[in-house]
Automatic annotation (TrEMBL):
Organism: Paracoccus gahaiensis
Keyword Glycosyltransferase appears in the UniProt entry: no
CDD domains tied to this protein: ABC_PhnC_transporter (cd03256)
GO cellular component: membrane
Name recorded for this polypeptide: Phosphonate ABC transporter ATP-binding protein
Amino acid sequence: MLDLNGLTKTYKTGDRAVNDVSLSVPKGQIVGLIGPSGAGKSSLIRCINRLVEPTAGRITLAGTELTGLGPRALRRQRRRIGMIFQEYALVERLTVMENVLSGRLGYVSFWQSFTRRFPPADIARAYALLDRVGLLDHADKRADALSGGQRQRVGIARALAQDPELLLVDEPTASLDPKTSRQIMRLLTEICAERDLPAIVNIHDVALARQFLPRIVGLRAGQVVFDGTPADLTDIALTRIYGDEDWDAMRRAEAEDEAETREALAARDAMVLA
Ligand SMILES: Nc1ncnc2c1ncn2[C@@H]1O[C@H](COP(=O)(O)OP(=O)(O)OP(=O)(O)O)[C@@H](O)[C@H]1O
């Protein structure tokens, strides 16, 4: 479905953020992209829809090569790729419904988009999507009146309104609390399964990636150094991805989080029992 072949990105500064990455993602598969800060996860994701222009290599989506397309053809192809962002990228003063409909902008004429007159089929589809992400009752609220988790649900519905063939997801839970993060990851995995949609999710939380994603790709210094299941992601594999120091620090942080959660639960139980 999605094929990356020797994908490379060297920025003008000389930083080689993505280095000869080859990867295939079949229909319906959701892949987690992990790696230390600066490993090239965002650059890789953004190269796929050419928000970042690759320096070398090929990107093929269902048989169409995206590298080398001119601006018009690229605009048309980008409709096939839905993007979900860490900071949601909603238009805050517009309603939830208007934000979801903005996913259709690539399909309607300039005048339709200028006057925000969308075809009835688009509106019906937007309602169905809001229902799917659990926000039907919030359709007329302004985006800035929503919680972080609700905003991310709008981001997901907007990406789906595009009717995409691929989802690119950049740190979808980085601004959310642990419980909401799990809800969002569950929603994403369910939606990909329902629609047979492939997805690449840039995710810094290894525990969350392990819990929800059947395939994990580890990047280090722009190169794929791991590609396997959560069960394959052993301490040795994690050390290969993060290096000794970072992996130990992550393990300590995870242990501290666990201890904090345990303490908070114990305190709550003590209050209930008192
Ligand atoms: N616009 C840019 N110009 C120059 N160098 C860049 C640019 N964007 C990223 N880089 C460099 O490319 C490398 C990879 O960065 P990237 O943001 O893709 O990594 P990342 O794995 O997503 O990191 P993080 O998890 O911290 O977001 C880094 O060395 C970074 O400094």
